[in-house]
Structure formats: C-alpha cells, structure tokens
Prior knowledge:
By secondary structure, chain A is an all-alpha fold. Chain A is built from 15 helices and no strands.
Amino acid sequence: MILAAPAVILLLVFAYGPMAGLVVAFQDFNVADGVFASPWAGLENFRFFFTSGDATRIMRNTLLLNVLFLSATLAVGVMLALMLNEIRGKVTKRFFQSVIFVPYFVSPIVVSIFLQAFLAGPGGRGGLINDAAGLFGIPSVTWYTEPGPWPWILTLVKVWQLGGYMSVIFLAAITAIPEEVYEAGEIDGASRAQMAWRITTPLLKPTAAILLVLGVGRIFYGDFATIYAIVGDNGTLFPTTDVIDTYVFRALRTRGDFGVTAAIGLVQSVVGFVLVVIATMVQRRYAKETSIL
Amino acid sequence: MTATVERTAPVTRVRPPSRRKSRRLEPFTIASYAGVICFGLVCAIPFWMVVAGSLTAESALSQRGYSFWPTPFSLDAYTTLFQGTRVWLSYGATIFITGIGTAIAVAATSGIAWVIARGLPRVSRPLAVFAYIPMLFNGGLVPMYILITQVLQLQNSWFAVILPLVIAPFLVFVQVSFFRATPQEILDAARIDGAGELRIFFQVVLPLSKPVIAVIALFYAVTFWNEWFHALLFLSQPEKFPLQLVLQNLISSVTNAAELGTTSAAPVYQMRLAMTVITIGPILLAYPFAQRYFVKGLTLGATKG
Lengths: 293, 305
C-alpha cells in the first residue's frame, strides 16, 4: 500500500539509517573520507572508552538516576491516581487532573528556569529555597556548586514533570476496574483506604508492568534533555549528574571524536535492547494478556 | 494558568445524586484531598512565580528576589523584547517547525497506521515490527549527526529539526488501535459503491478518525514546540533559532539577553522570565481546550497499546 510509503521512507532514513551508521563505531572516522571510506579501527574505540576511567562513572550515574526516576515517578503516579480517585465530583476531579498534568507539556529549558527560581535567585541571590530556609535561620546553600544533592533534586524535577502524566495513565486503568469489586469490598466493611490498598493497587500491576518494561528498556539512556538543560556545562556537578548521553554530546562537541562516541552509543543501544527483551519476557510470563505487540 | 482552567469547567452541570455522597468522610479521603491539592499547588506555583517575576521591575527582582506579587509592576522586559527583532524571528521559526512538522507527522503516521490496522497478510505484521523496533533501538547521536550534516546536508535548515521527529512509534500504535475499531461494514459498503482503497482512506476513514487525529496532532505539536536538542545540534545561524533555543542561550549566559533588546541597559533577569512566559504562553492558553484529547490519547495508548 502506498499510504505507508512516506512513513516507511522516513523511518528508513531517520531511524534505520543511523542504525546502519553505527559502523562508525568500528572506524577511525574522519569527515573527509566519510562513512564509506574511513579506515577501520576494529574494537579500538571500545577499548579507548572502557579504559578511559569515565566509563564506570557515567554508566553508574545513568543507571542510578534512571532507577531513581523510574521508581519515584511510578510510585508518585500510583499514589496520585489513588488520591484523585477519592475526589468526588467530576468537575473537581478533572480540574485537579488538568493542573497536575500540565508540567508534562513544559520543555526542559523552561523547567530549568523554574528550578533556578528555587535554587538560585537573580543577581547572585539564593533563590526561594534559601530565602525560605533563611527565615528559620538555616544557612543558605549554593546548590549549583554542590554535586551531592543533585540526584535527588533531579528526581524531584522528574516527579514534578511526570507525576501527573503517570497518574492519568493509572487513573484510566482504575476506571476500567469493575464496580462490583468495590461493592463486594463495601459489603465486607472495608474502609476507603483498605479498598485503595487491597483492591485498586494490586489491579494496577499490569499497567505498572508495561510502564516498567518501557522504562527498563530506556534505563541505559540518560535523560539528555532534562539533565543538559539543567546542568549544562557546569563541571562541578558532573560527578553525580554526568550520564552517558551528556558525556557523548560533550565528547562530540569538544573533541569531535566520532568513532568513540558512536561506540558508546552502540554499547548503549545493545544493552538497552537486551534489557527490554529480558523485561518483556519476564513480564509476558506474569501478565500474558497485557504484552505490548 | 489556574484561572483559565477553571473557566472552562462547566460548573453548572447537574450531577445525578452520587451513591457515595451519603457516606461519611473517611480519613483517607481527606488525606487524598490534601495530597492532591498540595501536588497541584507544587505544579502551579512555578508558573505563577515566573509570570509574577516577569512583571516585576529588574531592580526589585535583584534586590528582593522572586515574590508572589509583582511590585513595583513593570512591563519593561516585554517592551524591550518585542521591540527587538529576535523574538519575532524565533516565534516564526517555532511556528514553522511546529506547523510543517505536525502536518508531515500526522500524514505519515496516519498512512502507516492505516496499513498496519488493515491486517493485510504478509504486510501489516512486518510493518508493525518495522515501526516497533525504533522504539527499542536507535543509532544514537553520532550517526544521526553524520546523517544530517554529511549525507543530507541539512545544517541550518528547519527540516533538520523536523524530520528526525516526524514518526513517533508510540503514536503510530495509538492510531492503529483506533483504526482497528473502524466498522468493517462501512468499508465494505464503500467498496461495493466502487471506491478504491485510496478513496476509502481519504473519504471514509479519515473523516471518521477526526478525534484520534486531533490527539496525535496535539502530541506532535507539543513535541515540535518544545524541541531544542536538534535545533542546538544543527542550527548555527541565530536568526533561525526557535524559541526554546533562544531561551536556552539566555540561561547559559546573561550577556546574550542584552542582544535581544534594542537598548543597552536591558532588564536581564526580568527578560529571561518574560521570554519564558512568551515561550510557554501558547501552550498554556491552548491547554484547557486540548487537555481532554491528551488524556484520551494516553488512555488509548495505555489500555490497548
């Protein structure tokens, strides 16, 4: 069918093209010779990356941050959905849902500006958090030079961005739960809290499983947009925030090292692919009817 | 922001008496209200801080920091921004990228989704796998960079920002699940009337699918409006920068702000906030009307997938 042709061509060029372009990972790439004529380098690029000392740091950061992001957003999403479900009145419920969903539509750059308002005010001032802490006599912190708390700050940012989004998905799953289940619970004298915890939460497992599988597949991909927009080239924060994607971006921009950066990208894709296959298989075993394809 | 959402809610609607209404308030319900209201405030406050800040005079901003109410009130940042040409240019760039991008994306996505949904032997299933693989596996930054700059020579073209994003596999499958629900009888009727496959798609299927097309168009539009990474990589001429990239330059260096205005003593911090408001403004204004489509799209994608 010709209707699919534009999409097939676009996918071939912009999704499958770059996959083929990964041969660069095995080349000593230079712009003059291009993809087809650059000399081969074997596994040299991979060896360079894994012996550089950066590899463990950025892989650890990527995994740690993504595990934090994924568990926090899923947990908050389920909690928000359970709480939204308690809200009576359609209009009120939809109003609150709209408000908590809105951060999802804000670009990472804007999120970064919001964050600056809280952590570092204009003209070298401390920002809202420090101003508030000052009222209680707590000394102010120069957040943008302290790498320690940043994994948690970024996790809070992700929860702010995605909490509402996740809750919309979970709330849709809650609406699909048949009313009789709750009537049975009511007859047994269950409180609202018990019903939420004993009935609704277990029934949300399949939805959570899908989101988890998708998340696990992306666990080796750092959240470039959010992290780069917030941290940028602020080197003091790299020890805890530098992930594979920001590292690759910097390596490409400052060193122009195509081969090594492509090699990192390939490692990333392969590990991500293996993880998602494993996760899908595990999930299929437990919830056959909810698998994705 | 909150005010606009409130206004769209039909407050006067009469609800049937709810069964639960008679129940007494339980602690969990009260805690839920508190929790949702807190999270809602956390979501809304940053927006208000930035709007208020953008209307506060630069001097007060740098002396007292952000405040909940703009005193002294000042429109300096907005007048400076709109007198310069850069804001208009970047708005034009963003509108071009969003408009053209969404149009291409919707056309391509609908086409492939329909063919997958038709369930044609030996075509649909491989095509679904073909569209699914990029969701799991991608070439990454370097090959994309080489492709755009070396092979296609698209540097400094807005199409370098648009084309890598025109097919989102997730939205393809949202649309497939909608198309699958198209009643077979209607298609058969059209076929008996002698309509060809193409004519069926354009004159029967697409008009029936307006709701799902609205959903995916909105998702794509937000993606394009917020896109800055490909712009950062491939655009180097400042007059081609979309809004997000201009804004990013404002964060990375305060001196960039001065270039946006016409006067030398530009209110730098105030302008950064004003630029933020200008960037998110259209999304926030459209959001109350579009919100239910987003919820619908997510629900379709999550439950059928």
